[in-house]
Amino acid sequence: MAKLSPSILSADFANLQRDVELVLDAGADMIHIDVMDGHFVPNISIGVPVVKSLRKVTDAFFDVHLMISQPEKYLDAFIKAGADLVNIHLEAEGAKGAMLRHIRAAGRKAALTIKPATAPEEVFPYLDMCDMVLVMSVEPGFGGQSFMEGSIPKLRKLRREIDRRGLSCLLEIDGGINLQNAPSVIKAGCDILVAGSSVYAADDPAAAVRAFKAL
Ligand code: DX5
Ligand code: ZN
């Protein structure tokens, strides 16, 4: 069964605790937290203080997606704030291997993310340093965009390489995921689905979580 990581980017920021508890009570496996710096992506979202505040109100696993140009500068701050998994973009600045090792040395899960234009093979040299790889199925920066079909063959290639090498690295997808396209990404080998608007913009977000979990 695929895991579900609802993205709070589409939640009500004035009621974050309520919206986080709502999806967890409905069966969400973790919480996806989108951090944007207005430089790596053309949008600004939330940062360290929000992770720290949410950490005080839940024990849930925090899947922190850093869409920032210089992740190295902020790794320790997010780790200290309570990130369980720190996700850095392959296209960001800095030495990715050293950052992944640093995150693991701090006792947290380490992940690499690729944008739609980045080939999955570019992640292969880092696979044994990753607990998870995230394939973006929209251009990062905004919720509510349409799923890009080109991400399906990318998932398949990564799945094949992870299995061929006998690694335990998980695969996650993020962007435009809904109940209609979720079965095809799961079939392509995806382990974790990020869903923002299809959960929080649904008439009944708890029912949406349960529907994803029933797939
Ligand atoms: C986009 C973010 C996503 C976003 C997904 O840059 O990384 O996590 O919240 O939103 P939906 O599911 O609406 O595409
Ligand atoms: Zn994200």
Q: What can you see in these coordinates?
A:
This protein is an alpha/beta fold and 215 residues long. The chain has a single domain (3-214), classed as Alpha-Beta Barrel (TIM Barrel), CATH 3.20.20. The protein has eight helices and eight strands. It has an eight-stranded parallel beta sheet. Helix 2 links the parallel strand 2 (31-36) and strand 3. It is globular. The mean pLDDT is 98. Residues 7, 9-10, 32, 34, 65, 138, 140-145, 174-177, 194-198 line the site of D-xylitol-5-phosphate.
- Spatial ordering of strands, largest sheet: 1-8-7-6-5-4-3-2
**Global shape:** globular
Span between termini? 8 Å
Number of structurally distinct domains: 1
Low-pLDDT residue intervals, each spanning 5 or more residues: none
In percent, how helical is the residue content?
A: 25-40%
Helical segment tally?
8
Average pLDDT figure: 98
Q: Which topology does CATH recognise?
A: TIM Barrel
Strand content: 15-25%
Q: What is the annotated CATH architecture?
A: Alpha-Beta Barrel
- As a whole number of angstroms, the C-alpha radius of gyration is 16 Å
> What is the count of β-strands?
8
Structural class: alpha/beta
The CATH class name reads Alpha Beta
Largest sheet: 8 strands, parallel
Considering the protein shown, what is the CATH homologous superfamily? Aldolase class I
The ligands bound in this entry are: D-xylitol-5-phosphate, zinc ion
SSE arrangement, N to C: EHEHEHEHEEHEHEHH
